Amino acid sequence: LDALTDGEELRIDLGDVAGRPFVNTVSFGVYADVVQRPEYRDDKAGTVFTLMPDLLIGEGVRRLDARVDGTPVSAQQALLVSNNPYVSPDELSGGGRRPSLDDGELGVLGIRVEDAAQAADLAVRGSQSTALTVLTAHRVEVTADTDEIPVAVDGEALRMPTPVVCTLRPRALRVLVPRDRPGVPAPAPSVRWRKVFDLAFGRRERPAGESH
Questions:
Q1: 3-class SS at 116?
Q2: How far are the Cα atoms of 2, 19, 33, 43, 53 from residue 49, in angstroms, in the given order?
Q3: How many domains does the chain have?
Q4: pLDDT tens for residues 36-87?
Q5: Residue 27, φ and ψ in degrees, nearest 5
Q6: pLDDT tier at 122 (50, 70, 90 boundaries)?
Q7: 156 in a domain, yes or no?
Q8: CATH of the domain at 50
Q9: Containing domain of residue 53, as a range?
Q10: Interior CA angle at 184 toward 25 and 2, to 5°?
């Protein structure tokens, strides 16, 4: 209400995926597959943890290729394109934040896991893992060996014909915000990747002092 009576106008970037606008993220691969499931709406975390093992390293895993500006990124199980980059890959859980929405760049995060050892490396090293690709771009083209693929656009489950192209419309969205508003929040704690993968692969966390 303060923004409507005495607001300040900001111009922010707007993402475009195959001619459809997005404000936050477009997800391909593992996450997009999960979002398509009816049970996801009632239990987001539980559905992700139940399905992730098979989607990452199970039989028949779907692979995606992308061209990130001029850089090829091949055989990814998961690919996330964001309207401006997140602070780090660890910021993508729940309370993820982007320091700016007007830098005119897409953030790109890809995950490629070949086997259980590489999955463990991702669990332990998180954003430092070789399984993770982090880039920025102005154009991302996603391809696959099928005519269409599941795509999650700002969390909405869709299917789109391949190739799917993501671009950015710089400062295309006008937003009214209050003049008196909170500043940039403190960074959220990093994701505990080991715990995420323990949950995903059915391993329990050992109490302190318990032998391995």
A1: helix
A2: 41, 32, 13, 10, 8
A3: 1
A4: 666 555 654 444 545 555 566 666 567 899 999 989 999 898 888 999 998 7
A5: -115, 140
A6: low
A7: yes
A8: 2.60.200.40
A9: 2-200
A10: 90
